[in-house]
User: Which sequence fits this backbone?
């Protein structure tokens, strides 16, 4: 993830996004209609239940969340494919901070779907962008597969006495703990601060954005320096060739 730092900061970045993921899950459930926005399994089940019971108005809130999630996945797949030079993790982090900050100031009288649809969209983009930590595929917005992988790699480590399997299991367990901590902070701060509590997520992600900006800036300067050095080498070669021809 980082090209210019001797110390790998990816673990910190994924920890902050897992904390944010857990926080947002608790936030929307506690304050905005009891809808889980980070993953859509529960929403799909509730949608079917409401529609079967002919409660179409109730089912729509889950449908909106699912559609927003689909849109987030599509955009986070399409844009990096079309614009390969875009620093997509940096863009995602900046947009997420901006959106989260805006959600904090939505009037209390506003319908809940404004918030949970937006959070579903943001979480889909986050999930589809930050997918691997040191070669380990994981999720920062839900824990089902993370729990499965934790157990499987731990079992693989015990059976094969393989330290690399234990390391992978520990990586998944670390992300799960961060997610759970974020959920705990989310529900406690929701009770105390109401809608403004979501600003805690923005605060968590600001250092991440600063790291991405710094890393990108270093990359730009390095490429510029390499271009100048290559240009100087080419001039020297041309001078030598010119002297020989002369």
Assistant:
């Amino acid at each position: 993830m980082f090209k210019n730092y001797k110390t790998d900061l990816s673990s910190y970045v994924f920890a902050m996004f897992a904390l944010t993921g857990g926080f947002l899950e608790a936030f929307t459930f506690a304050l905005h209609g009891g809808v889980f926005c980070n993953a859509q399994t529960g929403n799909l089940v509730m949608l079917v239940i409401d529609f079967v019971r002919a409660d179409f108005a109730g089912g729509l809130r889950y449908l909106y969340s699912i559609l927003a999630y689909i849109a987030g996945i599509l955009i986070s797949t399409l844009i990096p494919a079309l614009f390969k030079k875009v620093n997509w993790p940096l863009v995602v982090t900046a947009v997420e901070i901006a959106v989260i900050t805006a959600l904090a100031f939505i009037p209390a009288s506003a319908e809940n779907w404004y918030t949970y649809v937006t959070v579903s969209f943001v979480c889909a983009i986050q999930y589809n962008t930050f997918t691997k930590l040191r070669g380990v595929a994981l999720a920062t917005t839900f824990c089902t597969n993370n729990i499965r992988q934790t157990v499987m790699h731990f079992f693989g480590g015990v059976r094969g006495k393989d330290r690399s399997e234990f390391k992978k299991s520990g990586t998944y367990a670390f992300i799960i703990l961060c997610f759970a901590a974020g959920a705990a902070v989310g529900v406690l701060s929701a009770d105390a601060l109401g809608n403004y509590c979501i600003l805690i997520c923005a605060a968590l992600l600001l250092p991440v954005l600063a790291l991405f900006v710094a890393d990108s800036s270093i990359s730009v300067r390095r490429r510029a320096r390499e271009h100048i050095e290559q240009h100087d080498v080419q001039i020297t070669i041309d001078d030598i060739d010119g002297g020989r021809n002369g």
